[in-house]
Amino acid sequence: MRALDDILVLDLSRVLAGPFCTQMLADLGAKVIKVEKPGSGDDTRGWGPPFLADPETAEKGDAAYYLAANRGKHSVTIDLAKPEGQELIRALAAKADVLVENYKLGGLAKYGLDYASLKTINPRLVYCSITGFGQDGPYAPRAGYDFMIQAMGGMMSVTGEKDGLPGGGPQKAGIAIADLSTGLHAVIAVLAALNQRHRTGRGQYIDLGLLDVQVSMMSNQAMTYLVSGKAPGRAGNGHAAIVPYQAFATMDGHLIIAVGNDGQFAKLADELGHPEWAEDERFALNRTRVEHRDVLTPLIEAETRRYDSAQLLEALERRQIPCGPINTMDKVFADPQAKARGLDQEVPHARAGTIPTVASPLRLSDSPVLYDRGPPLLGEHTESVLTEMLGLDSAMLAALRDKGVV
Predict the structure, then answer these.
(1) What mean pLDDT is predicted for residues 251-259?
(2) Distance from C-alpha of 100 to C-alpha of 173, rounded to nearest angstrom
(3) Domain map (residue ranges) of the chain
(4) I need a surface site. Which of 42, 89, 151, 206 has the fewest CB within 10 A?
(5) Cα–Cα distance for residue pair 275/265, rounded to 1 Å
(6) Superfamily of domain 245-328
C-alpha cells in the first residue's frame, strides 16, 4: 500500500507549481488525472531542448522540463472551452478527492468549474487554487511568473554578489524557487485539508499565491527586516549572520566552508596553520567574526589557495569541519552518497521503454515511493479514464473526438 492510494486527484494545472504538487501526490500513491488541452497539452511539453527522442524514429518527444514534474500521472485530453468538456470535468470532479488548478483569477468560474460550483456536487472536494498573487488584493488579476515573483518577493534583493563588486547586482536563483516552493506548500495544504475532512466530512478551498510563498520563504531575511527595520542586502556567497560560511578559492576551483560554531572555527584555524585566530578577540566569537569579516575572509582564502580542492576537502572532513565541493549535475549523480541513496531512478515510458527520473526525497518506511509510473504521453489515458470512471462507450468517445472535445 502507498500512503495516498485511496485518493483521486484531478489535476487542471500546467507548467510547474501545480504539476510539481500533483507529482508529489502521485509519488505518495494518489491517482492523478492530468487534464490537458487536446493537440498541445501542457506548455512544458515543448519547453526544450533537451527533448526525449523517440527510440524508433528519433523524432522529438516531450521536453525534459515536462518530464521533471509529471511522473506517475494519467493524461486525459479535454477541451474545457466546450460545454461537453465542462460536463466531463464536472463528472470527474464529482468523484475526486482533490482538484488542483492554476488558472488566472476567475478563469474556471466562467466554465462553472470554480470551487463554489463544484462543491455543490461534491462537498468533500479539496480544491486548491494556485495563482501569482492569491484570490484577493490589488494584484489578484495579474499573471504571476516565477522570475518576477522572485524579484517582487525580495529574493533577488539578497541573491547575488554585492553591489559595486564584479558581477554585482540582482540575481535570480538557478531554479524556479517560487514555483517549486509553492508546489511544496500546496502538498502540505492538501494533506492538511484531507486530514480536516477526515474529521468533518467536508472539503475546503485552498488559496495559494506565489508571492505569499516567496515572502514566507524569505524566513530569517524577512525577520531581519521586521525586527531591525533595515532591509538586508546581497552578500554574494557569504552569510549575513555567520562567518566563515561561504565559498573559498583553492588552487583548482572553490570549496564551500560552512563553520556553524566557535568550536568548528577553532579547528579550521588550527587546520589552516593559524591556531592564534581562535584566540584573537576579533575572531574568537561568531558575532565578532561577522563584524570583522572583511579582515578574516582574505586571511582564510590566502591559506585555502595553497590547497587543491580535493586535498582541502579531505583535510577539513578529517577534522569534521562542514565543507563540500561545488558540483555540476554530472558530479552530483556520480557522487557516492547520491548513488547510495539512489537519487537517479528509472521509470516506465510508453514510447521510450524507460526514462531517467530524479528520485523523490520522501522516504516512508511502510509506504515507500515506487517508480512504476512514468510521465504520460499526451492523452495516453483518455479512453481508459473516461471509460472506466465515467462509463463512456466507444461510440460516445468517437462522438466527442469528432467534436474536438477530447
Answers:
(1) 96
(2) 26
(3) 8-217+342-402, 245-328
(4) 151
(5) 10
(6) formyl-coa transferase, domain 3 (3.30.1540.10)
Residue with cell 495579474: 142
Same fold yes or no, 8-217+342-402 and 245-328: no
- Write out 118-184 in H/E/C secondary structure: HCCCCCCCEEEEEECCCCCCCCCCCCCCHHHHHHHCCHHHCCCECCCCCCECCCCCCCCHHHHHHHH
pLDDT higher than threshold 80 for residue 56: no
* Non-local CB neighbours of 241 within 8 Å, separated by 6+ positions: 220, 290
- As given in the structure block, the three cell numbers for residue 365 are 518506511
Closest CA to 205 of 217, 192, 215, 218: 192
Strands 31-36 and 73-77: parallel
Task: DSSP letter for 246, please.
Answer: E
Bridge partners of residue 355, in order along the sequence: 347
**What residue has cell string 527520473?**
357
Q: How much is the pLDDT for 300?
A: 98
Amino acid occupying residue 28: L
pTM: 0.93
Residue 262: CB atoms within 10 Å: 15
Interatomic CA distance for residues 280 and 228, integer angstroms: 29
Angstrom distance (rounded) from CA 130 to CA 95? 21
In this structure, are residues 33 and 11 in contact, taking their beta carbons and an 8 Å threshold? yes
pLDDT band at 167 (very low <50, low <70, confident <90, very high): confident
Active-site residue set: 179
Question: Cell triple for residue 37?
Answer: 488541452
227's enclosing H/E stretch is helix 219-228
Which residue matches cell numbers 487554487?
129
All cell numbers assigned to 183: 508546489
- Look at the domain 8-217+342-402 and name its fold: Rossmann fold (3.40.50)
Q: Are 263 and 319 in contact (CB under 8 A)?
A: no
SS3 33: strand
